[in-house]
Amino acid sequence: MLSEHEWFAALAPGHQALAARQVVVQDFAAGAFVAHRGEPSRYWIGVERGLIKLAVYTPDGRGCTFSGVPAGGWCGEGSVIKREARRYDVIAIRDSRVALVPDTVFHTLLAESLPFASFVVRQLNERMGQFIATVQNERLLSVDARVAQAVAQLFHPALYPRTSEVLELSQEEIGLLTGLSRQRVNQALRRLASEGMVDLSYQSIRVTDLERLRHFGLSEL
Question: Which residues are registered as beta bridge partners of 68?
């Protein structure tokens, strides 16, 4: 399982043994909380199968989604590094299998393994760029462009290296990532399909022109 991840493959044998011995693998049903906002950040979180999101919600039900994390992605390193309470909820959008690396193991690897430390720095840099883009898109782009960018972000080569050209992603799940209704997501996807960027099938999307999808709507900025 861990051997498929870049950071694990780069570790020395002793550090690989430590991580493999301590990692916790857990299944979460769709809608379940992987981690709660305000709780201690005791794990670095990786997705082995499925899809999770990072989001915050107010008591009156308003919400903001920062990012979706598909299989192969990791998240939460910032809170673990700072040993602070998690600042967002981590929620399974669909049934998901999650790898949880304990904070003690994470800090040991960070202190003793240069390849691991380099990987984490790259993760932090890429994640910051993604978060800035997400806030920008939500505030400044049209709905169709927001949907295009939400799908394109799942193809980030550094953060989500396992994403294939065919996303097993429903319109409802895209709605959960964007905060939009399924009906409005459907309209946006149909426009993207009509312009040759995606093909739509039941419960899946095939991206046919990733570069155009990544740039769709950005001329509005």
Answer: 53
Does an H or E element contain 67, and which?
A: strand 63-70
Chain-centre distance for alpha carbon 139: 20
How many C-beta atoms lie closer than 10 Å to residue 4's C-beta? 12
Give pLDDT tens digits for 107-137.
Answer: 999 999 999 999 999 999 999 999 899 889 9
What six digits make up the tokens of 22? 């301590």
| H/E run at residue 102 | strand 96-102
In order of start, what are the domains of the chain with their CATH numbers? Answer: 2-134 (2.60.120.10), 141-220 (1.10.10.10)
Find all residues with CB under 8 Å of 120, minimum gap 6, and list them.
7, 77, 81, 110
Look at residues 84, 71, 65 and name the one whose alpha carbon lies nearest to residue 131: 65
